[in-house]
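Shipment paperwork, digital attachment
Item: protein structure file
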Amino acid sequence: MPIMADRLRGMTPHLVADVVLYSTESGGKRIPALHGFGCPCMVSKTEPLLGYDARLILDEPLHPGQARRIGFVFLHRASVNVMLEARHFFLWEGKFIGEATVVRRRSASRL
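Attachment content:
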């Protein structure tokens, strides 16, 4: 298992969101997202596209077409505030593969 995936297991998420991966038939991924999966997150589908790198904390695979509440760890602290302010964002993997709605953030003192 990659080192980053191992480190994610012990991390507190920057935020928690309800995530829906688009089905393969709707243009989503063809394979499930596994623990350690990361992708740029974008607050808009309008160009120019601006993404914020994140890792999803997954206890089990998230398959195309599934929805689940998931923790996110962002690689840059400023990204967390952008996502919290937007409250809704999109997952990108060469195309839009899903979307998320923020339901909770960790305490401000820990950001």
